[in-house]
Amino acid sequence: MSSAGDVDYSVIGLGYSSHRRPDPRIAAMIHAALGDAKSVLNVGAGSGSYEPTDRAVIAVEPADTMRRQRPAHLAPAIDTRAESLPLADQSVDASMAIITVHQWQDMRAGLRELLRVTRGNIVLMTFAPGSASYFWLGDYCPELAAVEARRDPPIETLAAALAPAGRRVEIVPVPVPIDCTDGFSEAYYARPERLLDPNVTRAQSSWAFVDEAVRERFVTTLRADLASGEWDRKYGQYRSMPTFTGALRLIVSRPANSTARLTDQTSA
User: What is the Cα–Cα distance from 40 to 30, expressed in whole angstroms?
Assistant: First the structure.
């Protein structure tokens, strides 16, 4: 299994620190999934979204554009890839990889490296391929839905790779808040107007694979439907939904002797 590794973040990464700010409610789920780890490896760390600030973090990020956007209060990121982590076996308490596995050049090798260096929990956040087609955005731009379905690895494949002997895996849907500050596509389920802003879509890697003519058609059609009220007639119910559970998932791999479950911690 190989992943995309197909986006030039020197181009699309420029707006990440403005439009892809970590959402505190999603962050709480990620940090709960890390358990009581004191040391955390963040692979594909980007500009530092979702890194905990109350633990020792080792960040790994191969794109210089993303490393330079890391705020001063976070540790500098190491310039290397998931497939070749410069760490000893079982050297970190937990590891995390947030919306990044689809960019790894060799996904299986990267996951093996996470298993090699991590003593405790491994936390991935990713999108379930194909789920975007059920979101209203798929009606306006089916080409984008097709891109996301093609690029996102199957959840079951990721879960199986993170469940060798001695580990167990939990898959948890992540509800997206109506005012989500992390600007991936589903974050705007109730705010379609935001997707008319080219700076917003530029911070979403899948749009890099959509032809400019398709993008222009999408903007023209969505703008017209918003002005006429057609969008609200068809999809207005989204505007009052406090959360939307779509494609976003957490995959949590734990040692077999761990009894914790993320669903138990987040359902209260």
Answer: 12
